[in-house]
Amino acid sequence: MPAPIRLRELIRTIRTARTQAEEREMIQKECAAIRSSFREEDNTYRCRNVAKLLYMHMLGYPAHFGQLECLKLIASQKFTDKRIGYLGAMLLLDERQDVHLLMTNCIKNDLNHSTQYVQGLALCTLGCMGSSEMCRDLAGEVEKLLKTSNSYLRKKAALCAVHVIRKVPELMEMFLPATKNLLSEKNHGVLHTSVVLLTEMCERSPDMLSHFRKLVPQLVRILKNLIMSGYSPEHDVSGISDPFLQVRILRLLRILGKGDDDSSEAMNDILAQVATNTETSKNVGNAILYETVLTIMDIKSESGLRVLAINILGRFLLNNDKNIRYVALTSLLKTVQTDHNAVQRHRSTIVDCLKDLDVSIKRRAMELSFALVNGNNIRGMMKELLYFLDSCDPDFKADCASGIFLAAEKYAPSKRWHIDTIMRVLTTAGSYVRDDSVPNLIQLITNSVEMHAYTVQRLYKALLDDISQQPLVQVASWCIGEYGDLLVSGQCEEEEPIQVSEDEVLDVLEGLLVSNLSTPVTRGYSLTAIMKLSTRFSSLNRIKKVVSIYGSSIDVELQQRAVEYNALFKKYDHMRPALLERMPIMEKTATNGPSETVQTNGETDSTILDTKHLPSISQPASQANDLLDLLGGNDVVPIIQTTVPTKPASAGGELLDLLGDLSLTVIPPMTAYNKNGLIIEFTFERSNPNPNIAVITIHATNSTEADMTEFVFQAAVPKVCSFPSCSTVIRKHIFISLIFLKEQLEAIKHRHFKIRVPVYFRQGLLKSYIMHKIFFFSGYCWHLI
Fold it and tell me: What residues does the GAE domain cover (predicted)?
């Protein structure tokens, strides 16, 4: 059989291939020849064939059929064969394949070989791909080589011990005696690997960490010798003595000094020395300074040392290298909470990074800028951040707008400044703000009573300039609907009032309804604003006409609003002024339980799950009646729900006070359900002055000690009325009221009035479901009327 081609010739031949297919054909041809040689047990050229196979493996072609040949080369007595065999084992084998266990005995023999280079090959292979089984079997040999006087073997044995500890952590104590003597070695390679081994042991075992803390003075002495030593061509890198060893020692000192006062005190001086004496003109010095900064920040260092570290990061921000600037911004972002004042000194440099062309630097600078905002610098920082928001890429606008909202809410010096800032954000990046920005700004405006005229005038001007920013348009529509009379009357004192007529305001809102830029939500805001202006403007006929047009809109939401508003004009016109009054001040109520408030178009829906601290409710009769008809139409039964912590007997009266100051005629109650500690009673009440309103109150009582959670009450009633479901927590009592109008009861007075009641509730781990039927005969209905 002819001699196979050499590796060099194979590489030259493959490089001449012009296409992928041509290269693949060459590889397949050569692999076939290598397989034939393996089958013939050709020992002469096995090493050459495995070397070519490894090159093909590096190109991405399969070479698994050469695994056993690697084992044969390892078992050979020739060093050249062993070198290729071990290299092939590291590339082609791993612990997931059982073949690697066959080489355990060969590695053990080679670890005891008389030639240091053969021992070095075995240590490299074990440290690269040794499995946990191999590590357990060979840990003793590795530990012996750690104690040898040969520095070449000691550094390789230390790295192999790191791999053994990672695979079998319980063998850590085996290497403890040998590790203590490694730091006294003068060879930098042994020192480097011993520091790596110590770091691994300290990270994996708290006991080892406390044990090795007594080595801090020795590590400090080694680091000081590296700094003070003169030029050494063997270890010099860009004028710095062995920076790799310095970085490793600094990292180990950071681990040893974290949370320990004595160790931190011992290394304070050397850290200050490294920070002040290291040259920063080359990247090597910057790497050492960065590790020094991380060590200072992690240990219990002195305040002056921490300021020095932050000043080093500040100098990094002026570096031309983008990577160094990014690292500095990231490190400052981590330390800004603990050393806020020190980082504040570099605020101008950080703000300048917002103008950087690199996207990652710009994002880190934005995050750090928001972290630096406080009550003292809020105006200046917001000015810079608003300028950044105006010029930044769309990818940044959402995060920047959210950050400005949060900072303005937390540190706003005045309500006018707060409103101006939010409006500036909506004008600049309105399409990128969060979904809750609109209700939050509406709440802010509502609570700023003295700023109503100024706000509505500013928003009206913004609306004339640009209607493409939908959140801005929604807030402006809401404010014009609420405070349109202030806009027309020109009562603004903060700036020069503008002269606006009612028709001009309505023209703008109608333009929003027909604009292609308006979303369905925006159109809903605009229609609601026009409806509210019916009680503030005199152009009533025009408003009725606009509302009636959208009663046949293809947008279901818009159509429903228009139909309900038409019903207010036609059937409940006497309630319209009270229903469309200005929204009261919206205040978030702090409760022990979770509270969720949703505000849309000036309507507030609050669900409070705690019943202990409820605010007192006092509403005029007109407002309560208006609330009852928000659903609109003759065939709807509104609900008023509240919870009463004490005095269940009088709670019904307090509940009905929501409807006004009414005197009631009490009709005997009916018990609908009384099981499992839950009592549900129906009581019937009628208003003497107003016979058109009748009330059925459902009183649910929890007689057990535990709370009933996830309580859901539903009712299936005749088609002429409806009853939405309700859900809450029952501690002791809860009241739910159905309000019936006369014409609804007229429709069922000659029939049986039936309610089917499904009730769900959870008590501890027990979940209950009840289906109960209650019949009210027509006599009840007639009597109620």
Answer: 665-778
